[in-house]
Amino acid sequence: MELIQLTPWDLGAAAVLVMLLAGLSFHLQLGIEKRLSIAALRSAVQLSLLGLVLKVIFTQSNPLTIGLLTLFMLLVASYEVMNRQQRRYQGYWGMGVGIFSMFISSFSVTLLALLVILQVEPWYTPQYLIPLLGMMLGNTMTGVALSLDCLNQNAWQQRASIEARLMLGHDWHTAIAEIRRNAMRTGLIPIMNAMAAAGVVSIPGMMTGQILAGSQPLEAAKYQILILFLVSASIGLGSMTAIWLGSKHLFDERQRLRLDRLTQPKR
Amino acid sequence: MPQLSLHNLQVQQLAPINLDISAGQCITLSGPSGCGKTQLLRAIADLDPHQGEARLDGIAQGEIPAPQWRQRVGYLPAESAWWRERVGDHFTNPDPKLFETLGFTLAWLEREVSRLSTGERHRFALLRLLNNRPQVLLLDEPTANLDQTSTQQVEQLISDYRQKLRAAVIWVTHDNSQHQNSTHHYRFKDGKLEQAWS
Known about the structure:
The complex is a heterodimer.
Chain A: H1 8-27, H2 33-60, H3 63-83, H4 93-117, H5 126-157, H6 159-167, H7 172-197, H8 205-212, H9 217-249
Chain B: E1 4-10, E2 17-21, E3 26-30, H1 37-44, E4 51-56, E5 59-60, H2 66-72, E6 73-76, H3 96-101, H4 118-130, E7 136-140, H5 148-165, E8 168-172, E9 184-189, E10 192-197
Parallel strand pairs in B: 3-8, 3-9, 6-7, 7-8
Antiparallel strand pairs in B: 1-2, 1-4, 4-5, 9-10
């Protein structure tokens, strides 16, 4: 089966749907038409650019340009993580926690998949590396952002009981243990839901893509299972790293709760 | 040697504070609200960054691990906070005798914290603190929300504890009446700590 080529008219027809939705929102005064249009436009521009960039990168297969692209992806993901926080860390920690935790998790899981599981030759073959890393980063970004937001919001709201425990001589690990557990669970809920619904309620994006491209459904399913497992490992590792680093940064060397290291939420 | 000594301890807008308190001694502190009394207690308990030094039995704050310092220098804030549902979840090896002095039995451990009155919660917070056997007590208006009977019970308990364990006590109080427990009284005036009487 050949993949049916999309013409500009096909995309235009789909775009009309989005425009209709925006028009309806305007008519009913729902107030989402502007954000919806910007988001739709952004996705069209970003994906077209990515298509162009990947076309060049795939033909060149130059490790340096591939490296630069992954670095760019990491930075954008970290910026998104920071941007989704109600209360973020002051200074370079704001971006730093996201960069470090996602580098540790997404990059190592992607590398493991390329070297040990898929055994791609050479390992940096962009046709495998870029989509894999993209899926790891995209999902881990959500997990890390949710975890950090939960951690810092709860630490702020429960500052009195955290300090009450410190006053009684509990160490900082004990004082924030429950909030940490909560943050970890919050970060992992989306992927756990996705795994539970996969194949029964939803057909995940990658499997859909492979089936549309003509793969055997069972082969596509195997790839999808691999990806789901890798993604949950990456999210778990990323959230854990971010929560560990982030909660440590909420206390200083004398184990004082230092909420002054967080910014005020913008309103 | 004094039990607790403060050397040029500096918090926020206050002038550096020097103070020695010996074992078994109780001093009271008063001053207008917002003058920094709570900040001072928090600094002694090492809950906020601060300048200067506090020593316990001659050992500097920084040389004792923070959790251990806070166990030995027990701070009772004006408002108590709880992190679990039941009262009993906040106690390890509760002492029934201690409970009786404030009119409670160990059966109260099963109660839910959210169903207690402010005064009850405050008295349990004191019991929770004394359960740690601290050498120094930093009390931020410990009887502010209590009726007369409870106030007397709390004052008696603290006085007994101080004498039995030779604990040093800093008692922050709002009213300026001479305190039966204290040997010295200090007050904050224009950001300075001065002795009112002894």
